[in-house]
Amino acid sequence: MPPNHEDGARRQTDRHDLLAGEPVASDVERRVEELVQHVDLSWVVRALIARREQILERWIDAAAEQPFHHGRREHAVTDHIPRLFDALVELMRRAAPRWVNPSAPLDDPAVLDAATRHARMRAEQGLQPADIVVEFRLLRHEILRALREHLPDNVPTTDVVGAELLVNDALDGAITLGLDALVRRIDEARDEFLALTLHEVRRPLTVIRAGAQFALRLLSEPEPDLAQVTGNLQRVISGTDEMAARLSRLLEASRIALGRLELSLAGVDLTELVRTTIAGLDPDSARRIRLRVQRGLDTTGRWDAEQLRQAIENLLSNALKYSPPGSPVLVRLRGDAEHVQLSVQDRGFGIAAAELPRLFQRYVRASEAERRGIEGLGLGLYITRGIVEAHGGRIWAESPGPGRGSTFYIELPRAAAGSPRPERSV
Fold first, then answer.
1. Is 201 part of any domain?
2. CA 387 and chain centroid, separation
3. pLDDT (tens digit, 9 = 90+) per residue, 98-143?
4. Which DSSP state fits 258?
5. pTM of whole model > 0.90?
6. pLDDT at 340 (0 to 100)
7. Which of 6, 45, 82, 154 has its CA 20 to 30 A from that of 122?
8. Measuring CA to CA, which residue among 189, 12, 178 is closest to residue 106?
9. Domain assignment of residue 258, yes or no
10. How many Cα neighbours within 13 Å face the side chain of 359?
11. 61 and 146, same structural domain?
């Protein structure tokens, strides 16, 4: 059956749009179509369908062993790789008879969608370009391994080669889409950072400018009130501190979004770190916090003390801010031989079950906090999650429901799985 050149041109235009104007290797894809159009892929389709679960299980095992997943299987789990696999098999199934010309893999909407979504999700999780490439390559390895192990010996070599060519071309395309998605994510993170930075520095800048102008006006008087001058200069200093804190938080969120959070690992006693963090709060807040440590528990580990201090401070700040004035906040430390768990429990307005999974995303805040007009950027929990996951740990929240308080949990392995920051010469 001769190819429909009008359809091919339309597919090429669609693909050009989907890749945001990037040039597409149309000649390469056309060559793949020509090379595989006379092979019989039905052998391969049957083998891949029969071994689907084994291929995907092996892929998760192999992906979980990669350093960027910290050796945790649950961190590697994704819905998009199974969808990509199924889309590839369906593409080959449609092209199985020798008289049907297969389309280029990236012309297939299901292949395109699954590859793009997987890459974007991994970019959001902070994986680097090389990490995303590795995941797609691992899927190729498992598919080709299944073909080598389970195709009947009597399958014509040309059919096997054609199938492998189609798989390789599709996953090479998926890698291209993955890198494109990551570039987009970096651009989006940069634009969000710049826009939010401009928005967030306006308020402290207004305070700084007003304080400085008023102080100058007072100083121009014949007998200036030095107490008032001092008060306004103090407001300038407070506004400067607030702006520095906001910029620091935005920068930390940007680093996490781009997967560039670095750890400086050393021996840390989590009990002492919690106590130091509490002592750094204002006296009224510190008096509200109760610390309970499991009897006989060793709370030491190899972590980044400064990053964990920030994570603990974020959780304490939230608990204090969203709880009734004067109500207690309970901090517990539990653990076993491999992990230490920290929990922060408050008696605040609680969180609806539907909102719990979204709490740790960027710029997301509980609806009740927004309804009550409580200030916040929606970055504290996002940054905390990034810090915890960089250590190879996990974070989650539980709440009985609105009006019944919340508990936030951090679980850390005693030896952080993250890559330590290189030592700097002084």
1. no
2. 11
3. 544 445 555 678 888 888 888 878 877 767 778 888 999 999 999 9
4. T
5. no
6. 95
7. 45
8. 12
9. no
10. 26
11. yes
